[in-house]
Amino acid sequence: MPRRSIWKGSFVDAFLFRIKKNRESLMSRKIWSRRSSISPEFVDCSVLIYNGKTPVRCKITEGKVGHKFGEFAFTRRRRPYRTNRGKGRKGKK
């Protein structure tokens, strides 16, 4: 996948760009823009990132700067693979 042009800079949603200035409104704020990049102004803030169903709490650290918000709110559930399902399994002989 080709990268974004350097002269354009990283993408930040207009809504996040406005609230980026005052940090108090950013604390525990719901973010629907998963495609926005995390900028250094968001460090040490706790935000709620929407995963398609419910908002997921995420603490922004220095290591997350430059990544997208959506990378830290998984949209799919992790289910462990189980070999035996117990009684009543269909097709068992």
TrEMBL record:
Keywords: Ribonucleoprotein, Ribosomal protein. It holds the Pfam family Ribosomal_S19. GO terms for biological process: translation. PROSITE patterns: RIBOSOMAL_S19. It comes from the Eukaryota. InterPro entries: Ribosomal_uS19, Ribosomal_uS19_CS, Ribosomal_uS19_SF. GO terms for molecular function: RNA binding; structural constituent of ribosome. One of its GO terms (cellular component) is ribosome. Gene3D superfamilies: 30s Ribosomal Protein S19, Chain A (3.30.860.10). Belongs to the universal ribosomal protein uS19 family. This is Ribosomal protein S19.
